[in-house]
Amino acid sequence: MTRFDGKTVIVTGASSGIGLATAQRFSEEGANVVLVGRDAEALAKAARNMDQARTLTIAGDVSREPDVISVAEAAVARFGAINVLVNNAGIAMSGRIDEMSLEDWQKVIDIDLTGVFLMSRAVWPQLEKAQGSVVNTSSVSGLGGDWGMFAYNAAKGGVSNMTRALALDARDSGIRVNGVAPALTRTGMTEEMMGDEALVQKFLERTPLGRVGEPEDVAAVIAFLASEDARFVNGVIIPVDGGLHASNGQPPQA
Ligand SMILES: NC(=O)c1ccc[n+]([C@@H]2O[C@H](COP(=O)([O-])OP(=O)(O)OC[C@H]3O[C@@H](n4cnc5c(N)ncnc54)[C@H](O)[C@@H]3O)[C@@H](O)[C@H]2O)c1
């Protein structure tokens, strides 16, 4: 499939996990891909199997405005336009309110929420020119609360509702804004959890499809939302969770 021939896609947090799978998916589908992350070496490694003529890596921190402006400028300088922005960079942090420092709270909000605002604002004029779209990686943690993760819940809840609000504000601009809400997915972020068999089993008991997510599961839905196939889909957050979110939260009875 080459749904993205001649299109330029920026993916943040692209050196690992869901971001890397997403960058690979867009590259396989013909896009020019701009991989953004904090570590230049990790990005170069992530991009090594992609068609170099259609690949650009830029080291930058999405919570720093000068960095995101440089990303937008470099993408346009290299490829002439920006059609799709995937706001995927993020960090997770656990801890209840009596355990959370202001510094840690600020870090989660700065990267997970403010980063989405800054990156989107930096590329908005280009997206408008290209009639492009934004896909945000929220989380099931941005659709409801978790135990002991309130800062992450606050940030991802913000991403979910920002997605809906930006879709409204984009009225008449031609820009679509959507998101994905993955559940437990096998990446570096969840490596420790995945090593805890009893914990994974608890997740599986509440997941009708009976397995954890893989980065490629999420990448496929991100690519769909960014594609012409989703041309009339706007302001939605699609759970990519094997059915977890279909439950009202009560435990399995059988
Ligand atoms: N893995 C899961 O179970 C899961 C579930 C739901 C949502 N998510 C979300 O998916 C997204 C991707 O996470 P992942 O699971 O692939 O983990 P990951 O740790 O492999 O990927 C996150 C990436 O973001 C990058 N990053 C972090 N802070 C950054 C910053 N300030 N600027 C630029 N890049 C930065 C990291 O370097 C990393 O490459 C995150 O937003 C995460 O919250 C993950």
UniProtKB/TrEMBL annotation:
Stretches assigned to the Ketoreductase domain: 7-187
Domain of life: Bacteria
Cited InterPro entries: KR_dom (IPR057326), NAD(P)-bd_dom_sf (IPR036291), Sc_DH/Rdtase_CS (IPR020904), SDR_fam (IPR002347)
UniProt-listed CDD domains: SDR_c
Classification via Gene3D superfamilies: NAD(P)-binding Rossmann-like Domain
UniProt similarity note: Belongs to the short-chain dehydrogenases/reductases (SDR) family.
Name of the molecule in the record: 3-oxoacyl-ACP reductase
